[in-house]
Amino acid sequence: MKKLRTFVIILMIALLFTSCSNGANNVNVIGMPLAKEQLENFDYDYELKKDFADFDNIVDFLDGLNNSEFKELYFKALSLVQLVDTFRFPVSDNVDTDNKAYIEVKKDENDYIHTYYETGYTYDSFYDTYCSVFTEETAQKIIGRFPAFYEYNGELWYAQGSSSGNPREVLREYEIVSQTDTVFEFRRISYQNDEEHADEEEYDPERRDEYIKEYIDFKFVLTENGWRVEKFLNAQDYDKIMMFY
Q1: What are the tens digits of pLDDT across the range 102-133?
Q2: Strand partners, 215
Q3: 174, 171, 170: which is closest to 61 by C-alpha?
Q4: What does pLDDT average to over the chain?
Q5: Do residues 191 and 211 touch, judged by C-beta distance below 8 A?
Q6: pLDDT over 90 for what percent of the chain?
Q7: For the whole model, what pTM was predicted?
Q8: Contact call for residues 87 and 161 (beta carbons, < 8 A)
């Protein structure tokens, strides 16, 4: 009887650890995930997932700085932020795209079930990619704020979702805020239509003072590992993206 009781206790503990990971999160695995030795490093090519709108003057602004490093850093950061548009997430060639394993995650008893799909990449290499562009603190904020990504058994998993722009925006302008040997700050000024002119798609110079203006600050800092992005989007922009998950 004592041996039977011991076996039951061991079995209960084993079941507990099988169904839980990442703290108190309940994880249900569907399908056959890749073995750890099949996982690859996240080698991202920084492809931009969306075309630029005609009203975005960022290329001319960055070209005017005569600093190719800032331009490269900006577009790398933009590309990584656009990864939240995960319907087009670039999974590993080792993953069977027609029959991907996925996990169902319930982060607490009051939460709904989140579904994440296998990528075939190690989570650490994914995280390191963000830290090669952003400061570590900013990388943590971006990855942690987006519900698009999840770590399970050392692998990166992603949730299908999409982001959207602002349909009332008609013009973007950029200006330098400050520049030193170790810090570069600039600002985007977004011109947006009000409710009355919501259907107007073209910028009208004669209405310049009538547009709603939104300001977004960007900040690059020189670290011991080179230039990194410390600020790329305002907090409300992350919240807007999260609405689509």
Answers
A1: 999 987 777 788 899 999 999 999 999 999 99
A2: 189
A3: 174
A4: 81
A5: yes
A6: 49
A7: 0.78
A8: yes
In whole angstroms, what is the distance from residue 120 CA to residue 60 CA? Answer: 38
Asked if 74 contacts 66 with a C-beta cutoff of 8 angstroms, the reply is no
CA distances from 165 to 152, 162, 201 (A): 31, 10, 14
Calpha distance 220→229 (Å, rounded): 5
- Distance from C-alpha of 146 to C-alpha of 139, rounded to nearest angstrom: 11
Q: What is the pLDDT of residues 171-185, one digit of tens each?
A: 999 999 999 999 999
Residue 135: pLDDT band with limits 50, 70, 90: very high
Of 189, 185, 175, 178, whose CA–CA distance to 229 is shortest?
Answer: 185
Query: 183-192 and 169-179: which strand pairing?
Result: antiparallel
Residue 119's nearest CA partner among 20, 48, 38 is 38
User: Which residue type sits at 194?
Assistant: D
Tokens of 157: 């998993």
- Asked if residue 114 lies in contact with residue 159, where contact means CB atoms within 8 angstroms, the answer is yes
- Other beta carbons within 10 Å of 86: 22
